[in-house]
Amino acid sequence: MKTLLTSTALILSLSAAAFAAGSHDGGHSNENAGQGHNDGHDHQQTMAVGMPGKPKDVTRTIEVSMVETDDGDMIFTPQSVDLNAGETIRFAITNTGELEHEFVLDTISQNTEHKALMEEFPEMEHDDPNSVRLEAGQSGEIIWTFSNAGGFEFACLIPGHYDAGMHSEVKVADAKVEYTKGVVKKVNAKSGKVTIIHEELKALEMPAMTMVFRVTDDAILEQMEPGDNIEFVAERLKGKLTVTNLK
User: Element (H or E) spanning 153, and its range?
Assistant: First the structure.
């Protein structure tokens, strides 16, 4: 009886170990190549480089190309990007080269760590919301909100590619948010618009006047009532004046 119990315990222990080994949450996969989003990961909320963004919040699009040069280098274009904290960027990525490449957006230290891991296990592929792998001729996109200032990069971590020059600097400045005083004249919840009598919008170089603004964030719109004295931030999003912050 004791031998039977010992054998059963050993089998259960080995089964548990096998199950754990088959559940890898390290952000790599051998499937779904070319996919730039993976909603199964929660760690993106605490990444130093920021977090996945929403299409409606995109402030601008940056086109990125991947290519090999005649002298043997591998590069991204552009090779440097300047951003402000709080921006949501759509990276429109195209592999114009002849080899498979990937785009991994992260801190330099994290990319260095992942690069070493992929050199040890070259069959692994990234499958995270901050990365996309593309075959020659393929295109993809990543929408990303940069919540923190600092120095970051996007890089190709396929063994040999980073060392061949395939990495670009991402510099995120600490944006100074400047609020403008105003009085709410009218709120149109149905159309998502608000009319504000405001002081000079210095960031937009617009004089004091009464204007209609879009409000894409329902939480902000719900805080405003006609007659309210407010301080707000307005930006041009997709060519429209939009209230993006309120206090």
Answer: strand 150-155
Which homologous superfamily is 29-173 in? Cupredoxins -  blue copper proteins (2.60.40.420)
Q: How many residues does the chain have?
A: 247
Residue 153 sits at φ, ψ, to 5 deg, of -160, 160
Half-sphere exposure of 178 (CA within 13 A, CB side): 8
Read off the pTM.
0.58
pLDDT score at 163: 97
Residue 107 CA to residue 115 CA, distance in Å, equals 12
Selecting from 3.40.1190.20, 1.10.8.640, 3.40.50.720, 2.40.50.320, what CATH number does the domain 180-246 have? 2.40.50.320
Q: Exposure of 132 by Cβ count < 10 A (0-12 exposed, 13-18 middle, 19+ buried)?
A: buried
Rounded Cα gap, residues 161 and 99, in angstroms: 10
pLDDT at 46: 62
